[in-house]
Amino acid sequence: MHDVMIETERLILRKIKKDDYLEIANILQDIDVMYAWEKSFSDDEVKLWINKNLKRYDNEGYSYFLAISKENDTVIGVIGPLVEEINNKSFVGIAYILNKKSWGKGYAVEGARACIEYAFNNLNSLKVIAQIRPNNINSINVAQKLNMKIIDKYIKIYDGKEMEHLIYSIDAPQI
After folding, report:
1. pLDDT one-digit tens code per residue, 58-110
2. β-pair partners for 127
3. pLDDT tens digits for 113-161?
């Protein structure tokens, strides 16, 4: 599979395709998964989300990837490095959204750690961030397990709402 971008012990992370719609809708349309966004996505919003990631592949070469379990070849979520814009500055960030069945199994930590290594080794990034809502305890726990530290916070306007986000960060290891 030429579209495999990152491989870990238990996961394959590959580029998203348009025909992954049902798997992605299954994640983005689950309000229990999307509670930090304060909404679930409509069918059109899922299509827009997929197209935005396809554009990011063309522009940056990476974005959210489809995360697939090697054990049973099922989609567990979307995980990836992506360009984050905060207060008119660009950062390499990591993001992870897992379906409920995959919570609590260490997949987010495993996939996000591989994406951090990818950012340091393949993108020559000196720092990787994660934007996390203060009420998103699961994502905060993942960031902490990755040794990321809070460096700042900011208000992101999303869907017409002001939403506070904590900015977690980890620096590239110094050789």
Report:
1. 999 999 999 999 999 999 999 999 999 998 899 999 999 999 999 999 999 99
2. 171
3. 999 999 999 999 999 999 999 999 999 999 999 999 999 999 988 888 8
Q: Token pair of 43, please?
A: 């069918």
- Please state, in angstroms and rounded to a whole number, the distance separating the CA atoms of residues 158 and 162: 7
At 72, give phi and psi (nearest 5°).
-130, 10
Is residue 83 helix, strand or coil? strand
Q: At residue 16, what are phi and psi to the nearest 5 degrees?
A: -75, 145
27: Cβ contacts below 8 Å, ≥ 6 apart? 33, 77, 78, 97, 98, 99
Q: Please, what sign has the CA dihedral across residues 25, 29, 32, 38?
A: positive
Q: What is the pLDDT of residues 6-35, one digit of tens each?
A: 999 999 999 999 999 999 999 999 999 988
| Tokens 């996505």 -> residue | 41
Q: What is the radius of gyration, based on Cα positions, of the chain?
A: 15
Strand order in the sheet with 4-7: 4-7, 11-15, 65-69, 75-86, 89-98, 127-132, 161-171, 149-158
Instruction: State how far Cα 112 lies from the chain centre.
Output: 8
**55 contact partners, CB below 8 Å, separation of at least 6:** none
Q: Which two tokens stand for residue 103?
A: 């919570």
Residue identified by tokens 């996000």 is 112
Distance CA(168)–CA(145), nearest Å, equals 12
